[in-house]
Amino acid sequence: MGKVYLVGAGPGDPDLLTIKGMKAIKAADVILYDRLVNKDILDLAEPSTKFFYCGKDPNKHSLPQEETNRMLVNLAKKGHVVTRLKGGDPFVFGRGGEEAEILAHHQILFEIVPGVTSGIAAPAYAGIPVTHRDYSSSVAFVTAVNKPGMSKETYWQHLAQGPETLCIYMGVKRLAEICELLVRHGKGIDTPVALVHLGTTDAQKTVVGTLGNIVTRASEIKNPAMIVVGDVVHMRQKISWFKEQVTDSTLVNKA
């Protein structure tokens, strides 16, 4: 029986990979990796390592999750040391919990190696702390898709009236709807919003606006991007530190 490491590869900057994550990559003879894993991180593996792409693109699933689960189980049962590389953190919208559950069911030895999630790292590289003593003492990491068993209206009402900072994953295509729902359920139309595209990488771009105008301002931003909603976005004006490779000056207009 082999072993599986469920590893968070971080948000994009390869230097944000943890030391334990690097050790798991070097120990593996098979690596299954996702779409948002920086390819430079794969170079850390031994030359004999075999790679399998398990990425899930926004418009298609290159490999169904069930097939990924089967691969993890079958490879481990054949005695392989497998590292399952996921962008960000495996337990933050990475289906790491589902894969760990399958491995536990088959009594396969596994380890969880947390990673730096984009919900914290992308705002940080844009000069936006997700909490701040003057602006926010609570933060929620959410997806743009409402939880199973909860209506869309209930989901966004809960978020609009809850945490002071929202970090929204996988929401670019639904940005207009998200803004409308948050305003409808209590967020002020002047609430600051930032979109950080490809955060922590050389291609990072940040757009800042409000719930009332961010859809127009961010029209050029594509997936993947983190949406940050809350007064903490104001801090970008003071502590923006990462030099972004922006060619269109309209992308960096301040709120």
From TrEMBL:
Signal peptide: none annotated. InterPro entries: 4pyrrol_Mease, 4pyrrol_Methylase_sf, 4pyrrole_Mease_sub1, 4pyrrole_Mease_sub2, CobA/CysG_C, Siro_Cobalamin_biosynth, Uropor_MeTrfase_CS. One of its GO terms (molecular function) is uroporphyrin-III C-methyltransferase activity. Keywords: Methyltransferase, Porphyrin biosynthesis, S-adenosyl-L-methionine, Transferase. The keyword Ribosomal protein does not apply. Its EC number is 2.1.1.107. Residues 3-214 form the Tetrapyrrole methylase domain. GO terms for biological process: methylation; siroheme biosynthetic process. Belongs to the precorrin methyltransferase family. NCBIfam families: cobA_cysG_Cterm (TIGR01469), PRK06136.1 (NF004790). This is Uroporphyrinogen-III C-methyltransferase. It comes from Staphylococcus devriesei.
